[in-house]
Amino acid sequence: RVPDNFTKESNQFVFTRLIYNGRIPGYYKNWYTDYPRADRNLIAVLKRLTNINIADQERVVPINDPDLFKYPLIYSSEVGQMVLTDEDAAILRRYLERGGFWIVDDFWGTFEWSEFAAQMRKIFPYREIKDIPRDHPLFHVMYDTDHIIQTPSLAYVFNGGITWEVDGFEAECKGIWDDSGRLMVVINHNTDLGDAYEWSDDPRYPNKFSGYAFRVAVNFIMYALSH
After folding, report:
1. Parallel, antiparallel, or unpaired for β 16-19 and 59-62?
2. Angle ∠(17,99,35) on CA atoms, nearest 5
3. E strand segments, the chain
4. 189 - beta bridge partners?
5. What is the Cα Rg of the chain in Å?
6. Is residue 214 part of a domain?
7. Pairing relationship of beta strands 130-131 and 172-177 according to DSSP bridges
8. CATH number, position 124
9. C-alpha to C-alpha distance for 146 and 215, rounded to whole angstroms
10. Exposed (0-12), middle (13-18) or buried (19+): which is 80, by Cβ within 10 Å?
C-alpha cells in the first residue's frame, strides 16, 4: 500500500516496487522481501550521491494499478516466485514497450531461473534474454561497475563467508531490449542487491558489498532516467 505520508509530486522520481502474486502465499520470498528497509536505505543514499529530485518515500504498486504507468522505473525482488496472469503479462508488456524500465533482483540458481524465464516468456514470447555487454553504458553512467560482484544476503555473516545460494555460484546481469535497442529489463541473477541495501547500516554486513550495490543502483537509475 502507499505509505501514509506519501504525497504525489509530479516533478519527483519515486522509487517504485512492484507487487506481484507469489507462487506460495505467505512465503518469505515474495515481492515484499527486504521491504521497506531496503527501499528507504537506498533512497537515503541516492539523495546523498546524486542530484536526482527523489521522493522521501517509496511507492509499492500492483501490476494492475493504472498509476504504474506514471513511474519510469520499477523494482522487483525474488522474481523466481513471481506468477503472472495473461493480463499481468499484457500490462507489463505495455509498460515496458512504452518506455518503462524494470530492475529484477534476488533470485538464485537454475530452478528459480527457469521459473522466472517462464514468466518472462508470457510478457515477451519472442524477445531473448541476453548478457548485457560490460561496455554497455548501464555499467558506466556514474560509476564503473562492469566487474560484477556477487552480493550475498546477511547469511554471509553466519555461514563462513559463502556468497552463493543453492546452485547460483556465479552472479549474472542480463537484459531484454526493445526493437530500437533500448534496454527495458535488467536481470540480476545469483545476487541479492536488496539485502545489501537493507543491511547497509548494520556493521556486520561488509561495506564491500553494500558499497558496490549502491553504485550499481545509482547507475541503473541514472541510466533509466536518461534513456
Report:
1. parallel
2. 5
3. 16-19, 21-22, 59-62, 73-77, 82-83, 101-105, 130-131, 172-177, 183-189
4. 172
5. 16
6. yes
7. antiparallel
8. 3.40.50.12140
9. 11
10. buried
pTM: 0.94
- Residue 131's φ and ψ, nearest 5 degrees, are -60, 140
| Residue 24 neighbours by CB distance under 10 Å | 10
Number of domains present in the structure of the chain: 1
Beta-ladder partners of 18: 61
**Residue 11 contacts residue 17 (beta carbons within 8 Å):** no
Task: Return d(Cα 16, Cα 102) in angstroms, integer.
Answer: 10
11 in a structural domain: no
d(CA 56, CA 43): 7
Torsion 84-187-60-94 (CA) sign: negative
For the segment 198-226, what is each residue's pLDDT rounded down to a tens digit?
Answer: 999 999 999 999 999 999 999 999 999 99
| Nearest-angstrom CA–CA distance, 164 and 172 | 12
Cell matching residue 61: 504498486
pLDDT tens digit string along 90-119?
A: 999 999 999 999 999 999 999 999 999 999
Report the phi/psi class of residue 166: left, alpha or beta, with left for phi > 0 and alpha for psi in -120 to 50.
left
In a domain, 20, yes or no: yes
